[in-house]
Structure formats: C-alpha cells, structure tokens
Amino acid sequence: MSSTSASASDERERLVAELQAARAPGDPARLGTKLPVRERLALLLDPDSFREDGVLASACDERLRADGVLTGTGTIDGRSVAIIAHDPSVKGGSWGRRTVEKQIRILELADRDLLPVVFLVDSAGGRLTDALGFHPGPRGAARIFHLQVRLSGRVPQVCCLFGPSAAGGAYMPAFCDWVGMVEGNASMFLASPRIAAKATGETVTLEEMGGARMHCEVSGSGDALFADDAAAIAGAREVLGYLPAHYDERPRRTAPAAPQSTDWEGVLPASHRSAYDVHEVIRRIVDAGSLLEIKPLWAAEMLVGFARIDGRAVGLVANQPKVGSGAIHVNSADKAARFISLCDAFNVPLVFLADLPGFMIGSRVERAGMIRHGAKMIAAMSSAEVPRFCVVLRKAYAAGYYAMSSPGFAPRATIALAGARIGAMAAEAAINAVWSNRIEELEDEREREAFIEERRVKIDEELDAIRVASELMIEAVVDPADLRAELCARLAAADGWRRATPGRHHGAFPV
Length: 511
Hints:
- By secondary structure, this protein is α/β, with parallel strands linked by helices.
- 39% of the residues lie in helices and 18% in strands.
- The protein is built from 19 helices and 16 strands.
- Strands 1, 2, 3, 4, 5, 6, 7 and 8 form an eight-stranded mixed beta sheet that branches.
C-alpha cells in the first residue's frame, strides 16, 4: 500500500473516531430523568433529517463534545427548521466562545432563509472560565438575543425548557413565541437562589425562584407545563402545526373535522350572572380535539389558544365566566395582548368569544395599572390586520367589549347569540347608577321593586342583541346551534384577505 493511500486511510479513521467521540452519549449520571440531547432531537425531527453543523467544535483542544450544543437544520412534518439543542451532559450545557458562535451562526442562517427555530434549552449559563469569549464582544451572547429579536414576528421561535436557563441565558426562552417547561427539571432565573441569598439576603428554593410551575402559574413566562421531555417535544411540534414557516405564508389547512358535540342544551345558563365553562362552547364550534391552549394555568379568567374551524387555523380569545365572571384583569390583558400579536404576526385569524362584565375594577387593580394593561390589549387587537370576528355569547359590557374586538375596531363581523346583551353596563348596574336616589326615596317595598323591575325590563330591551342588530350595530344574531356554520362561512369568505400597504413604522403603545 502506498504512503498516500495509507495517509488517506489514517485520515478517514481519524475522522470516524472524532465524529464518534463528538456524538457519543453523555454520562447518564448527569441526566437524571432527562433524555440525552440526541434522543430529544430524534423525537422532535423527522427521521434522518438532522444535518448538524459544528459537530467537531473543540475537538482539537478541550474535547468537549460539540462544545455542549447541537446546531443544524432538520424537518418537522416535512418543513425545514433550525435547531439549537443544549447538551446538559457537557459542562451542564454551559456557554463558551464556540457554543455562542455555533448558536449565532444557526440563527443567522434562520434569518437568511426564514426558517422557524426550535430551542431545546438546558443550560447552566455562561462559562465564567471563558467570560471574555461568551460575554462582552460583538460575537458574544448578546448577539444571540439580537438575532432572536430580529427574527421575532418573521419566523416562529419555540422553546422546550428541560433544565435550567440561567442568568442572561434566561432571555433565550423569554424571546420565544412559546415556552414549554418540564415540571421538576426546568427552571428560569436571572440569579440562582444561592447568589440571591448572598446579594439580597432572601432565602428561597429553586422552585420558588424560577421553577416550571411558578413560571406557568405565577409569572406567566411559561406557556405550558409538561411531565417529561417527550411530552414537551410533542407540544412544540403541535404548536408549529398551527403556524406557517414564516410571516409571508399562511397556516396550513388540514382536513375538516366535526366538533366534539353539537348539543347546546344546558351549555349557556339562562341567568347572565351564572358561571359556566367556556370550554363547553369551544367544543361545539371548533374541530374536535383541535384546541391548544396557551398559558392555561396563568390568568385563567381569559382563555387563549389555537384551534381549527373547518380545518382552518384560528386563534381564540375567550372570556372564562367560571373564573371571576370573566372580567379582564391586569395579567389576562397581558396574556391576550401577547397572543393577539403572535396570531397577527403569523397570519392566524382571530375569533373573540365575549362574555364579560368589563375590565376588573377596584383600587387594587387600578394601582396595578389596569388602565395601562387594558390599553395594551386594546392596542394589540386594534393593530391586528388578520381577519377578526367578535362573538357575543351572553353579555358584553363597558370597555371590556371594546377589548374583545367590538364593532368600533372594524372586525370582519360581530355576531351575537340570541338573548345576548350588549351595552355600557348591565341593567342592574345602570339602575343603581342612575336612579339610586329615587329608589332610596321610595319607602314602600313593593313600589320600590316595581320601579326597579320596570326600568330593568326597559334597559334589557335596549341591550337585547336583536335590538342592537336592528340598529345595524352588529352583523348577525344566530342561534347557538348555528354558530359554527356561521363562523365556517365567514372564515371561508375571508380567505383572500391581504395586509394594508405599510405606513408608519410602529405605534408607541403602553407597556
């Protein structure tokens, strides 16, 4: 054998050895209940579709497998995506100079080719032994977040958070459109409990500081809580199924499916004061099994999520009367504003299901900035150019009606169910506001009750949906049994919608 062929053979053997070392599984003891990073990718991507970049990073010196992060492209249901997947078995998935450079390069590719990005996050943060490499320079970690912001609204960015996302790295999931967190393992914090105790004297557990359930129930930074890695990955795939590849495409339409039920008996209580679960309404208007709630554990008085109606992807924004009468609070206004903006960015039509007394009132919410947060929701809704439809289920009062895409904000249609009431306030509240002094003057109880009832009937007649429709203030009044068909037809008619010609750069809205 010639020296040349021997050399080529040696190089092939060397390459095979280096690739095997780079792709070798990590120490199982470092993973606990977590899946190895390459098993996570196998669950996420179509078989044999992953094309890895930078697998030999650090092979010639530190010999850290792929330098602790896998990057590249693959396909999900045949659609190309960019991947960033931290390997917690390599220095806790921490970031050094090469780790950061790999992530920057794949985000630059996603920016150039308009690829959705999936982040499989499990990182202890930056390697302080390589601080100059990952932190301050123009190709440091800040560049990652700059690219995420640049990609925002242009391509979907979804994150499965399997372990820690610490310090500045916590902003990686924060800039994503959806964050699924694994209970018991995932955490997100700017400073660990140990560092916080040193700096502030506060003593808290990791879960209290930034655990998965805390972020899904309290802070609202998590969108969904999962039992394990596989469930979180399935959730990410499901979310991507409702979104287009990028802002210049429309969501895919799937085969239509019948709703879970068509029986409306007992769903909507006769009394507008009685609570009920808006899920029961949704099950009767969307394709069976298609509802995917976003942030279901946070601000539960507002339900938001994706669904399909006749195979078309829609975003639902629904008041939940079984929680605080469905009144809009500070957090639920934020929850709705964020979701509305997401749907508008990726061309998902919006269906508002209104059943609310209005915005929450009282000194506590005023001090918390209810007006400012409510304005944020209204601004997001008003700015959305996707087709919007407002459905009044039982009642829509005060400025809460405005926030739910009322006629003044030019929805494609406002549809009320028979018997619904629409107005500045409910009859009982209006009577108290206008005639309280007169009522107090009436000493005879029967005369007082007759006075109140007479005015209640008159106000109810003015608020009635048919009366409102007769004044051309809404487009239609339908029986509940006909609501799905009405929405199917109107969504179909809006298929050809187009955005307005760009004007101003953007508004300066409340934050």
